Amino acid sequence: MPVVTFANTKGGAGKTTAVLVMASELASRGNRVTILDADQHGWLARWALRSPRFPQLSVHSVTDETIEAATLRAKKRGGYILIDLPPARDAVLARAIGLADHVIIPVQGCAMDAQGGAEVLDLLADLDRSCGIRIGHSVLLTRVNAAIPTRALTAAREALAARGVRMMQTSLTERAAYRDVFDHGGLLHNLEPADVSNLGKAIENAAQLTGELLTLMPQRMPRPQARKVTGEIDQPANAAPVRKLARAA
């Protein structure tokens, strides 16, 4: 039951998008996936409310007080646990990193994102130095132009490599499908190709990215990928109970 925490203290780095893209791909392969939404804006909880239900995928809003208990319950259910964090260096960040088997640090090719990622790296280094706790971690470059790498992106790669930071070989590319899935609900694989430009390229990128994640945190052999998924996402009936469930978790 691997726990993967997505962390960057700067907003807009691509944490939530990366969580949903990987969760969509994992679920499409038949894996059970639990998303723990610790962001106070609750973007993933909102996405779940407008989505059909899928029995293999559930979304739960959590807080600093409830995240440990929610993680324990998810481990009992089995599958993969993905934690989306708020853009802040606070108690829930430290707690979620402590729960993680691997930490993904999404970073766009800009200095501010790099600084937010560096704060997470510093926290991981402090855990290692002070407590002897070593947690695997990787930087994920996000919103990458699939055709033309920018100078800022190249500089970000070089700066991270100079620090000896492990980078995921696959980047999260800039795709319209990754925005549309939040608007329409459901999984990436359930979008209609006629309505979304380059959907096939987005699904291919998601598959490559998730495949690399599986090599970092193997649990079991993934089932063959399915292009369409039917069923239901475990979710509250409306927006208000989402927060109520989080407090009761």
From TrEMBL:
InterPro entries: DNA_Partitioning_ATPase, P-loop_NTPase, VirC1. Transmembrane segments: none annotated. Residues 227-249 are annotated as: Disordered. Pfam families: VirC1. This is ParA family protein.
